[in-house]
Design a protein that fits this description.
binds zinc ion; 14 helices; alpha/beta; 442 residues; 15 strands; 36% helix
């Protein structure tokens, strides 16, 4: 019996390649096993493409093209976030097939994020290599091993390519997907193709004060001063505005919206201020689309119930909107807190990514392939809210897109980094067709 794509997908899902922020906790034997299983499961690919292992466990495959034009890079990552059996309907690393026919689901950690894309790329390449196909220009497969944590695997791959003077014509990584019912008033499925992603800044706010016994507190303790700063932050969110990408999304998709909403979308010259207010109130996702966001994620005070804090700290995670900057965000925070006794330290920062064009050859290649794999699907650019490895590639390519060629329902998207992650088998198999079609045309 020869195993097919589904069995190979299951084999790779069953290897718990779990990323830990503290890499000393990572079980590297699983990563070694994953790499050796790739060689066993995809023999034609491994006989034809060159493989370099970079930064310990990241993988860079090169498929030599017949010409020497700018290459295409297909990205994915094979590390996953932790999961234990608790709260899962089927265990996270069992790759259980659930349901029948068109409704069959593959259940498990990594099905959406991001072994689903990684394995469908491998399936597409294996099939094409086996049929004797040679791409016109080079195709690279760039598979990171620690996207969920440090991300330095992908950064190291980019450094290698940059050192060789390589400028990809097209880079595709995880990010958007095909979804229904996200954009108000539009019933057709839409392929959301990420053209940029927000930046990240992590700040620590701290207040230092002479401690003492809690029985004789000063008027404003360190913790109370910190709390006041947090309240001020929460009361004054970053300003909302539509970026050019937001406007393009509204214009493109609004043209297909029915009813009164459609009228609003098609008359932006008049309705823009109203619409902006709607976006900020409609939900957390639409709100995050139109502004820099801030979230206080950690707090600390004193170690005992009857001791005043000598130092109180709050960690603030900021997602910087495209069009703004880390400096601008920190300045806003400083202004809003308006208290010199609250110190602000920048722990880490990365600027928003440059915006890839939503027209031209690279864009047309992706969207026309969506149309042929998923007929009747609209396409729109969007700005990805979370960070991905693809931002590293913006250093060497102007055409970096974040899109996984799978249909994902709202319920399924909610399982990303959560319990019961799963994908429909039918859409996963179609994803293979997407990559086959794409590679044939690069
Ligand atoms: Zn991911």
């Amino acid at each position: 019996m020869t195993a097919g794509p589904i069995e190979r997908f299951q084999t790779l899902l069953r290897i718990p390649t779990i990323s830990h922020s503290d890499e000393s906790l990572t079980d590297w034997a699983q990563f070694d096993l994953f790499i050796s299983e790739l060689a066993r499961l995809y023999p034609a690919l491994h006989a034809t493409l060159d493989l370099e292992i970079i930064a310990g466990h990241s993988l860079l495959y090169r498929w030599k093209g017949s010409a020497d034009g700018a290459p295409t890079v297909l990205m994915a990552h094979y590390d996953v976030v932790p999961a234990d059996d608790e709260g899962w309907d089927y265990p996270p690393f069992a790759a259980t097939l659930v349901g029948e026919g068109d409704d069959t689901l593959v259940w498990g950690r990594g099905t959406l994020d991001d072994k689903g894309a990684l394995v469908s790329v491998l399936e597409a390449v294996e099939r094409l290599v086996s049929s004797g196909f040679v791409p016109q220009n080079d195709v690279y497969l760039s598979f990171g091993h620690n996207e969920e944590t440090a991300g330095d695997g992908a950064a190291a791959i980019v450094a290698v390519l940059e050192g060789r003077g390589i400028r990809p014509a097209l880079v595709i990584d995880e990010g958007g997907a095909i979804a229904e019912g996200v954009f108000p008033g539009v019933t057709a499925p839409v392929a959301y193709v990420g053209v940029s992603e927000k930046g990240i800044t992590t700040l620590v706010l701290s207040v230092d004060q002479v401690g003492g016994h809690a029985s004789t507190p000063p008027k404003l303790t360190a913790t109370a001063r910190l709390a006041r700063a947090i309240t001020r932050l929460t009361a004054k969110p970053f300003p909302a505005r539509f970026s050019p990408t937001n406007i393009e999304m509204i214009t493109r998709l609004g043209a297909h919206a029915a009813g009164p909403l459609g009228v609003v979308f098609r008359n932006l010259w008049l309705t823009k201020p109203l619409l902006l207010a709607v976006f900020t109130r409609l939900g957390d996702e639409t709100n995050a689309l139109v502004r820099t966001t801030q979230a206080v994620t950690r707090l600390s005070g004193s170690a005992a119930a009857n001791v005043l804090a000598e130092r109180a700290t709050a960690t603030v995670n900021i997602r910087v909107a495209v069009g703004s900057s880390v400096d601008e965000s920190v300045a806003h925070i400083r202004r809003v807190i308006r208290d010199e006794l609250v110190a602000i330290e920048v722990l880490e920062s990365s600027e928003p990514s440059p915006v890839s064009p939503s027209s031209g050859a690279a864009w047309e290649l992706i969207t026309s392939q969506v149309e042929s794999t998923y007929p009747g699907t609209l396409a729109s650019p969007y700005i990805q809210l979370g960070a991905s490895d693809s931002r590293r590639y913006t250093a060497i390519s102007d055409h970096v897109y974040r899109f996984s060629p799978f249909e994902m329902s709202k319920d399924e998207r909610a399982t990303l980094h959560a319990r019961n992650e799963r994908i429909h088998l039918a859409t996963w198999l179609r994803g293979i067709e997407f990559y086959v079609g794409l590679i044939e045309r690069v």
